[in-house]
């Protein structure tokens, strides 16, 4: 090559291509890492949002468990005479079937018929009737609803009344319920937890545990725990 010749030789060109390839691979790796981080954070955020929706809904309903109107003594005039049985066990956890049953004053506003309606003058008389009922003069109507939550096939299902079960959340790995129990019926604070309380009168709170999984396995399973205190003393 003469002194007047200018340009790159083959060796210089190969070195430049190799360095460029290394830089491109580095940029690609950074992009892939950033994308994976975004996807994992988005998956974790979705799981947290699902858990927040489900658990906040259940807490709202658990706090109303055992609320049947303004008087304790209620005459059962329901169609199957099944109101008193539900009144005695307003919260029930089937550990084998993974099903939670709640009976409480209706806090929904979706227009569905309640399971029972308690009509009361809030002085001396209270009567429970099946489904909806219009109060007479001087009476108040308390709609009572029974809801069931069931964990099945990686889904948490909710059922109310005669309606078909609805899926609240998918990709559920586990669902568990335990009860905070007082030492005696007069104690206000819970001293221990049990999934099978010997006496409903000892229940002071309910602990919900919900485990969600990411089907794409971008993030590990996340378990969410929340405790709801009962506002109404159970029988």
From TrEMBL:
Pfam families: N_methyl. The chain crosses the membrane at residues 7-32. Keywords: Membrane, Transmembrane, Transmembrane helix. The keyword Transmembrane applies. NCBIfam families: IV_pilin_GFxxxE. This is Pilus assembly protein PilW. The lineage of its organism: Bacteria, Pseudomonadati, Pseudomonadota, Gammaproteobacteria, Pseudomonadales.
